[in-house]
Amino acid sequence: MKMNVRPCFVMNRLRMQVDYSGRVQGVGFRYTVKSLAPGFEITGTICNLPDGRVELVAEGTRDELEAFHQAILDSGLGGLIRDTQVNWSEARGGFRGFMIIG
């Protein structure tokens, strides 16, 4: 019996979307997050939103994504963040590295 099974590295990857609000634009937030990204096995983007929030979209294993999110909070940016909205979904792929967009 042949089974159609995706490789483990695909099945274990998730997408984490985080919207940060507070004093998060014009303070080096995106650049600090980008500088943290190489320390984690993640891919994704970070961008400013028109309403003053910053949106992070990253893919990786849940452990890596949670550690990355915690590193952002521990980096000194935590004091600038008033609120975070985190949404999880299945990874879609398509990212190459980690980039600042918008």
Topology, element by element:
Blueprint: H1 8-11, E1 13-22, H2 29-36, E2 43-48, E3 54-61, H3 62-74, E4 81-90, E5 98-100
Parallel strand pairs: 2-5
Antiparallel strand pairs: 1-3, 1-4, 2-3
Please, how many domains?
Answer: 1
In N-to-C order, the SSE pattern is HEHEEHEE
What shape does the CA trace take?
A: globular
What's the architecture, going by CATH?
2-Layer Sandwich
- Work out the helix count: 3
Distance between the termini: 49 Å
Largest sheet: 5 strands, mixed
Q: Compute the number of strand runs.
A: 5
Strand content: 35-45%
Assign a percent range to the helix content.
10-25%
Task: Point out poorly predicted stretches.
Answer: 5-9
CATH third-tier fold name: Alpha-Beta Plaits
The first-level CATH class is given as Alpha Beta
Rg calc: 15 Å
